[in-house]
Fold these 3 entries.
Entry 1:
Amino acid sequence: MQSGNKESIKKNRYCAVCGQKKVLDGVSGNNFCLFCEKETPNKYLVTVAETLNVHDQVKMLKKSTGYKKFAVSVIKGWFSSHSHKDGVDIYRIIDKENDEYHEVVEDKHTGTILHQSHEKLANTLDMEARATSSRREYLNRPGMERR
């Protein structure tokens, strides 16, 4: 089960003869039915109810000649997050045709915007390339030989 699921169990005792709910009054025994006015067998009704949290996601790609993999990518929906237990809503557009990158990350529970980015796609790719090259330099430093 996921962490957001809620489960409840109810157990009720009924008279097996008349079907009425038995009430514990503390004076009569556990098998005494107030409606039949005698001791009768018990019939138990157990009800289990569970609530599931459902999340949705939509991913769309526009493919066009001249672009590797896609020309436009749109992602909208719920994503899990380590820092926010209820997850976050992400709305992201990567538009290679117009050289645009838009991303809005919103807290699912409170609705506050956690991160917002609107910039040229080339700037985003440059930062990613610099991070990749610095990781490569870090891994290729002396003493970090691959096995």
Note: The first helix runs from residue 121 to 139.
Entry 2:
Amino acid sequence: MAMSRDKSVKLAQLYSRVDWLGKYSASLGMRLGEADAQVSFLEEQNRALELEPAWANGERDAQRALIEQKAQEPESHAAALRENMESLEARAAELQLKDAAIMALTDAFVQKDVLLEEQRSALEEREASMSSLLQ
């Protein structure tokens, strides 16, 4: 019974974490939108630099590298979030299987207890019957 409660608490914690991860995913989506806006702005600046003399090419290349790095950050965060979600889903499925196994074992134990009680009662009746025969 305590194990089932522990599993329920653990499952509730996992669902809470999944909820948090969902909110975090939404936050990352917003950050990705901001990064896209920043990329658009920096691309516009990049076009202006291409019109400048050749010495500006080095600066443009550095800005492009920074843009790419910043654009990849939300993507890597989103990939990590997807991995975490998949891991949590796998853990939740595992917990459901364990919970089902616990329920099955609990039912088996209850049935065995009932059977043992019936056997004990039958044995007591036999002892009482034999005792009355011996007297």
Note: Residues 56-134 form the longest helix (79 residues).
Entry 3:
Amino acid sequence: MFRETQFWNDFRDQEHEFYRRQSEGIERCRRGFCWLHKLRLATDGAHCLFDTERGHRVRFAGEVFRVVLERFGVQSDGDEVSQEAFFVTLVPSHSHFVTSDEPDALPIHALRQWVSSALRNFSYVGMIEPAYFVNVGLGPFEGTRLISWHAHLLVWGCSRRELSLAIRRINRREEPLFPGAKVALSKRVEDRELGETLAYVLKSPTNQYTASPRRDPRRARPDAAAEIDPDGLRSRILTAMEPLQPTRCRIRKSEMSGLNLVRLFRVMWEVRLDHLLIAGGDGSELRKTIVDRLPRPRQRHRASRSR
């Protein structure tokens, strides 16, 4: 059984550590009477995203592991998959999918539709995830905190060439979030790596990010003047150096601080995991099976902000 595998044990330990750190952050905020002291820490059965006590994401992930691994004929560490699969990440940059850390609405439904359009005729299952940028030092987002909503997917039922063509088409059509980045990335899931790949797709968002420009070395302006040396044998360019627009972006990640864990909790507290679970093609049946096995969620406290 997959519950006896190393990748499942590592995933479970990582999630429990995440819940512990988040609980400590929430408790510190409560004791400090900060702006979160009125936050309702609601839970919602196995669908709750950030449950700090019972590890609902672990139970949710258990259902996903069971259904997907059975689909690929994997029962234990070392088993080879019955079908070629790929790990795909999609990071759209449209304003719908980049929000502040205090958004009026979450773009979950819109991102699900975007992924469905981008991977039409492909079979996939995966999760929508927020990437929390705590400091952005370039572009229209400079000096802000923002959340980039993206998707991690397991894709199958296609050849490597077919998927590569689709990935190139997406990257040609869509502008990246930051200079030099890619909207779509893909990687073949090697034999015996399916469990680790699923663990990455299903993990809680535990990292925070910063983005800063990576500029080219200084170069001459087009209108620079030329001066002939006294010996007349060589010339050099006299330049008045000026800042250049960044051509690439440097993204750094680190473990999310306790306060930022609570900030992200504030954004996501009413989101259910089945809303973040997305699928297409043959994966739609897997998603239906997973959702049907989950406990029925309790009544909502207020209308969802998903858009």
Note: The mean pLDDT is 77.
